[in-house]
Input
Amino acid sequence: MSDTTFSVIQKPPLISPKLRQILGEIKTHMSKYNITIDKNRCVGSTLCMMEAPDIFALDAEFQSHVIAPDTLDDEGVLAAAHACPMNAIFLVDKETGERVWPRN
Output
């Protein structure tokens, strides 16, 4: 018997044009805000969680933290920031770099 060596050529996976379009749309519809929380201001009121429960949660210190930074729910993020009694949620527009909330 002779030893035969086979080589396997791996081809990149084929992606249909429709899937490529969907993936492109997902990338362009990511959150338009950078979200940060000032832990010195946060009092753990949970109002942000009530407005956007899929985006905010309380950590071990009973302060808010972001669990979904690339959310598609920009309206929920903005509503949560507005609801915060301490203005602890800071929103910055990713495109312009301008602070959206709080406005001061």
User: Anything to note?
Assistant: The longest helix spans residues 17-28.
